[in-house]
Amino acid sequence: MKKLTAFLLLMGIFSVTQIFAQNTSLKGTVTDTTNKVNLQHAVVSLLRPKDSVLVKFVRTDQQGQFSFTNLPPAKYIMIISYPDYADFVDDIDLVAQPQKNLGNVSVTTKAHLLEEVIVKQRIAAIRMKGDTTEYRADSFYVGPNANVQDLLKRMPGIQVNSKGEISAQGQKVEKILVDGEEFFSDDPAVVTQNLRADAVDKVQVFDKKSDQAVFTGIDDGKTAKTINLQLKEDAKKGYFGKLEAGSDFDRYKYGKGMLNAFKGKRKLAAYITNDNTKFESLNWNERNNYGSNNDNMQVMEDGGIAIFSTGDEFSYGQGLPTSTTGGLLFSNKWNQDKHNINTAYQYNNLNVKGRIQTTSQTILPDTSFTNTQDQNFVSDRKRNRINSKYELRIDSTSTLKMTLTGSIVTNRNANSFLGKAISEDGKLINQSDRTTTNDGEDRNLLGSLQWQKRLKKKGRTLSFNGDFSVMNKTNDGYLLAKNDFYDKNGSLVRQDNLDQFKTNDEALSSINGKVAYTEPLWKNTFMELNYRFAFNRNNAERNTLERTSPGGKYENIIDTLSNHFIYNSNNHMGGFTLRLNEKKFNLYGGASLGSVRFNLDDINKGNNRNISFTNFLPNAGITFNPKKQTRINLNYNGTTRNPTLQQIQPFIDNTDPLNITIGNPNLKQEFRHNFTFSYSDYKVLKSKNFYLSGNFSTTSNAITNANFIDSIGRRVNQAINVNGNYNGYIWSRYGFDVFPSYNLSFGFSPNISRFVNRVNGLENVSTNNSYGFEVSLGHWTDKKLSFYLNFESRYNQSKSSIRPEAVTKYWSHTSYANLSLKLPAKLFLEVNSEINLYQKTALFANNSNVYLVNSSLKKTFGKSDKLEMKVAINDIFNQNQNIDRNISTNFITETIRQNIQRFWMFTIAYNFSKNGKPTNGF
């Protein structure tokens, strides 16, 4: 292990030395031969002679001067372009003369050229089409087998950080669209890391309007920064697949087998995997290539698609997992894409074991105490799921979309807890030894229906969106607990022993829908009318039983811990929105009014309770675009939050005997006022950007908690209504190129909050403030070295009114780094790190810092690099832990969750294809 680490380090030092030994420069001044003036903002581009691929470009400054630095020594074609002027083309040799000064470079207007002179038109590498910036992918050089993320790093105005997060023109990219195919997720990091760059024809950056605005043609001011990838046609034909296996020849191993065959728009795919190195052995790209992740897909009018992907309990978590997955997929489009069907079956089996350690401080009016808990768990979950989607384009004005998903999930888990509470003076208050087990099964059926219709008059539309769900959940398990309680002198005063069997059966169903109608009122002014309904039903029965005698059967029902409720809710809402769309700004305002009725039927006690709430939801906003690259947004909306069944039903759950939750049938509805703003200003070609956004919300009748904690550390929780809660944040970032391809950015992000609750009958006001400062530097190149560095410091402060002298203050620091080196002989070295540092406090005095460093060395073989071998080290310093600190009301908590730590892995992968190209970057 030490020899391998030393070898990787030496290779990195060698490559860095070679890079900085070969830099050259080129400069000059662009001048008009006719008027004898220097030209500002002229585009000076350097192309590679053998294939005319763009290497780098700059714009001239106010004096007409331009400069290139850090250029590799080579021969180039230089092109100078300026509106109404002929292109100036010249050969540049930076091998013989590394530091070259061209002096004045004269260009001529087209009007003064002789008639026999032909000006050759060149397709620009970057085009501005209205509000869309379009990049021609082939004009930006990337190495063999590069992915889209490598391509985006070469494009002016686009930044990619170490986590794969993408910013374009100063704003975070929220969506990735892929033209015409349903193979991908719209998650920006996922798609760009796994889609091959050579499959892309064009990259388009724009502000995508909301789906409703796209359909109706009425701009509602809601946009999302979006990148659309237009694929080359030959990237969509044939078949492709992968065989991959890896092991450390001891404990860790994984394997994958995948095949995707397609003809035209018909697709057949299958995969099977087994892995104990991570929770989901398929990456996002593979799940969409060989499986199905299209539950939330939307086909756009221009043929592009957007997929809103979400993870589930089988794709993330903590602990040590063993995962087995498999799937089959069929999809097809026919009759000029009027019909579109997508059906998939998936199998998942996830077995996890692990440990969670929690330390928390509870602040009371006259004292405080510390709780520690050590949890060990094991779980096994299996899922069989089938989902299907059908789309019908009825005619040019209307479409119909239906989806149906069914699944059966079985789970088994066991948990053991060892905990204790310690007073301020170090005395034992209580200790607990608790074990829980649970076996359950969930059966789910969900469906949706969407219909959209454009009417004859432009802007007049009618649409319906509806969905239904039927869910049945059953589970049962055991609770064994021994709880000891002590007095102030440390003497045992009470002991509770629990031996109970618990059953839980739930039958849930719901139907929801929305009808919307839009009507143009007069020029640039529109109105939308909508009606929403929702019907929900939950039949929930819980029973807790104890033994009839020691060692006997569990037959005695504990009435106070058993209940049977039927919970119904009916919601009706009608609303309107008025919109004014002008060239540089648009305004909107509206409101919705309706009522929701809850009915709670207590079957065991024969009681029935009805609760009604009136919902009023106002909204308003303005978007102002003083110029194309500047945008200002101001928005307000009011929302209500109604109590849940678990908050109002009066039953006791003693799963954790030291933390009991009871219901509050007198809860009121809460109302939240929410204000947001944003300002963005960017200069694409200069790679400069500034972005500022913020949010502030305040809540009336906020639903919060009342805690009663007795002298022996037991806590009873109940939901209550309070006033005075608020929270707000500001996020800002300024970025620019300090040198060509070296981007520096700074960020500032303060947060404030005020939270009211009750502790032992007293009102407690908690104020939590934090201030974050961030700086990052990135450099990406098609040559040897690319890197990204990010560092953030955050100061955290919290205090509670019931103990104003007990103030919690600490710094936390987070750093990310990524280094990529392209070495000779098709070798690729990559090192990435994540470092988290927490300042020690009186409560958290132990070392909780994490230094996570990973490294890999990869080699590809063959002309097309289909075969790859890689040696990787995960968590070199054996530090991987999931640490989380949380400050909430009068509780301060630090949780450490077990994760996979250091291991090494040898991997071999073979990719095969015919015509088609997998969306993978090897």
From TrEMBL:
Residue stretches making up the Outer membrane protein beta-barrel domain: 454-910
Signal peptide span: 1-21
Annotated keywords: Cell outer membrane, Membrane, Receptor, Signal
InterPro entries for this protein: Beta-barrel_TonB_sf, CarboxyPept-like_regulatory, Ig-like_fold, OMP_b-brl_3
Subcellular compartments: Cell outer membrane
Any one annotated GO CC term: cell outer membrane
Protein name per UniProt: Outer membrane receptor protein involved in Fe transport
